[in-house]
Design brief:
8 strands, about 10% strand, 21 helices, three-stranded antiparallel beta sheet, alpha+beta
């Protein structure tokens, strides 16, 4: 029976060949302890020494998680022990975001699937760039084609490399494999204005003319315009060209857990390299990844391939992105992201596929001991189309996103507002009074029983409405935050990528 466990493992491997291991024992073969640096960082700390030591701890926790992620049993690890506590049972239903230590996460190894494995020397180069900022960075990840290639190796000349990276270390050149690209970062910070005040003092040249108005103006533009991110592009640090976006950790966690803009949540649907970890962000992002998986399942038929699953997930954040409607983005972008990063997508999502009771791998390739690393195999999956289970998935979608979806179907079903409010209140009361996880009711089951293509169109429409305005306003904001010159340069490069992608499609 599955009662009392938040996850039921449906192993891709034969059950006899994958014995359930105690997590402590499983990780004992690795040299790095997963709890050595788990004490976390005080949210309100502004003391330089404390921030520095906390950053070291969070970097070390990231290393520990990466080590755990390399375990051959990792696809089966995102489930608590055989005798879970009540906190483990309801972690997704009632997540505790008031945490500042990794030991406060629902269970050991929670969320280690988020940590991608990249070349060690390249990782250290990226991490050293963070230390060139005196302003405290609480959470950081590198992402995009500058970290995870989306094409085969190029043949750039030394002059072409220097045009991007004036003094790139060998590790960067090797990782980018002859196709030099600006490296993108997101920095999660505790106090927006304080961070920009320190950074303006140290790196005034990173900012446009807006910086001359001071940290108050900069933080206001960041927090009040667009999706709450402030980008500084075409910045050279230690001979490496980077773009970094600054976001308040509260804004980041809200988008990850509720999907109010999907701007940053969508970036984290795809593999990224976490350089400094934070327990609250890790918890929020695990909710985000499960939400992306559930949304993709609502858009997919009963049977599909692994590549179709990852392409659907990767495409969520581009559905409402104005760059995809205009000639400013490679039309093959989603396909390139998935096809060149299959192993990383598998590391990110295979443990979550294993955790859902209505989804399973159904492919003979899974019988191979090294199936995780076999990127030549495109595995087949099947989902249970039972309306009760699919109704539950609808009920467990992120709060802000789910509200928009409910509003669409309230109009479609012509439910009077008072009746609709009463129905929603009854659902809320049932959840509060019950120890069970959120269960879809008649309304959710009615949604899920709509014609498949109509359901997909409605969900896609809600995604577009969620993303469109934050993404558009964020793009417009870039001309203020980056300055007209750098903003135009960035736009020009995007147009060039679109033309190259179109040319490749024609060829």
């Amino acid at each position: 029976m599955r009662i009392g466990r938040p996850y039921h493992i449906q192993s891709c491997l034969p059950r006899a060949s994958t014995p359930r291991l105690n997590r402590t024992a499983r990780l004992s073969t690795f040299p790095v302890s997963t709890r050595t640096f788990a004490s976390g960082q005080s949210k309100d700390s502004l003391n330089g020494g404390n921030e520095s030591s906390a950053a070291h701890r969070n970097e070390s926790e990231s290393d520990s998680a990466s080590t755990a992620a390399q375990s051959p049993d990792e696809p089966h690890s995102q489930t608590p022990s055989d005798s879970p506590s009540s906190s483990e049972i309801d972690w997704e239903e009632k997540p505790n975001f008031d945490i500042d230590k990794f030991t406060q996460l629902p269970y050991e190894n929670f969320g280690v699937n988020q940590h991608m494995i990249i070349d060690r020397e390249f990782k250290e180069v990226l991490r050293q760039l963070l230390w060139k900022f005196r302003a405290p960075i609480r959470y950081a990840f590198a992402y995009g084609s500058g970290v995870f290639p989306q094409s085969t190796g190029g043949s750039a000349t030394e002059a072409e490399i220097k045009a991007v990276h004036s003094k790139a270390p060998l590790a960067v050149q090797k990782a980018q494999n002859g196709s030099p690209k600006m490296i993108d970062f997101i920095f999660g910070v505790s106090h927006t204005q304080h961070w920009h005040s320190l950074n303006l003092t140290q790196h005034r040249d990173h900012y446009s003319a807006l910086g001359s108005l001071g940290s108050g103006a900069v933080s206001h533009v960041q927090d009040k315009w667009g999706a709450g991110v402030y980008f500084n592009p075409y910045v050279t640090v230690e001979g490496i060209q980077i773009k970094y976006g600054v976001v308040n950790v509260d804004t980041l966690c809200r988008d990850l857990s509720e999907w109010d803009t999907l701007y940053l949540a969508g970036r984290l649907h795809k593999p990224v390299k976490i350089l400094r970890d934070d327990p609250r962000v890790r918890l929020s992002n695990q909710i985000n990844l499960l939400s992306a998986l559930r949304t993709a399942l609502l858009l997919l038929p009963p049977s599909f391939t692994e590549q179709e699953l990852y392409a659907t997930i990767a495409g969520i954040s581009y559905l409402g992105d104005p760059r995809m409607a205009l000639p400013t983005e490679n039309p093959k972008k989603v396909s390139n992201i998935v096809s060149h990063n299959m192993l990383n997508f598998r590391r990110l999502y295979a443990p979550l596929v294993e955790s859902l009771p209505n989804l399973t791998f159904n492919d003979p390739s899974c019988k191979n001991a090294n199936w995780i690393a076999d990127t030549d195999a495109v595995l087949k999956l099947e989902q249970d189309m039972d309306p009760i289970k699919r109704g539950n998935m609808v009920r467990r979608l992120p709060k802000a996103f789910r509200s928009k979806l409910y509003f669409e179907y309230q109009k479609k079903f012509q439910i009077p507002q008072l009746d609709f409010n009463k129905m929603m209140e009854e659902n809320k009361n049932e959840d509060t009074a019950s120890f069970k996880r959120q269960q879809g009711g008649r309304f959710e089951q009615r949604i899920i029983q709509q014609p498949p293509e109509e359901l997909r169109d409605t969900i896609r429409g809600v995604i577009k409405k969620t993303i469109s305005w934050p993404s558009t306003s964020q793009s417009l904001k870039s001309f203020v935050t980056a300055g007209f010159s750098r903003g135009s340069r960035y736009l020009g490069e995007k147009v060039a990528k679109y033309r190259q992608g179109s040319k490749d499609m024609e060829g």
